[in-house]
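Question (not urgent): is this output format expected?
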Amino acid sequence: MTDDHQTLPPSPTGSPAGRTVHKRTFTKADGRPLRLYGYAPHTQAPLEQDGGEVAKGGELRWHPLRREWNVYAPHRQNRTFKPSAADDPLAPSQPGGARTEIPFTDFEVAVFENKFTSLHRDAPAPQEVSGVKSAVARGHCDVVVYTPEQSGSLHTVGQSRRRLLLSTWCDRYDDLFSQGCHFVLPFESRGDAVGVTLHHPHGQIYAFPFVPKVQRDAAAGFQSGYDMAAHMAEVIGTYGVTEAGGIDAVCPPFARFPYETTLVPRRAVKGPWEFTEDEADSFAHLLGDMTRRYDALFGQTTPYMLSLHAAPVGLEADWQFHASFYPLMRAPGRIKYLASVEQSTGAFTVDVMPDRAARELRAL
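Got this back:
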């Protein structure tokens, strides 16, 4: 069992200005790494843990018509499903209480390897199926726990915690790219309508052994001359929601989801590790501000998907980092379902014009 302590480098890739970020890497009893990030060194002794076997990922199969890889991970059918608060696996462990994924009584931000992972560094050889191109699902899947509190959001955790989360993401980008992963996707799925099975505030990171089709297409768009920052600056008067320190929040005129909003740096960067201190603070602020606006607009905890789109390995030329919120509401109490047309063709039917969405979110 290993236990390593270090500090992250100064901003922009690590610690916020004037604050030291400490990182503790601890190996759990079942062999999975647990990383604890915080402004104070984490020195607690671990509580008793459970061991046991851990899934080592699925397999990749190529879709010959869609021209894309998909991941098959049948063991994920058995993952934890909406446990009670008393059985929350993302909460800190307590003496005499249920064992959780985090065998300490407190933490700031915690990152651990998903027990029900789709991708794994030691993924098994794929099955042989006639006429099907397959590959090893070698990669990595993290769970990122924002807070020890069992409820909350990117808004309620506060700016200091959001800034720590951004430092955590940058450190994980660096580590996962160094392991040979080709595309790293930090994301958050929020709410029952998105299929979330754990309601403790958290996100995930998937690190792929290939560049997914969506990112290959985006890279082709950037390399063909599309300048996202310039385009959003041109339309911001109509489609802008808010801004902070060199980052614009915009409902793109080509949005596919009602109330979709993208955070676009005015200065082209490949990923958040290239942010200036002001850009990092502003990006962290907007993550919370957009969550607040969505909840105020719909009068509820808004189900959404949040994705950070950083440059894939080998396709960095002309890439512009951005982060997108994809809400699953089209009006209060009304879900935007991705039904037959969207699933069959990839052509989305958008119920709310992006300029109207921007006006409504801007007013909040």
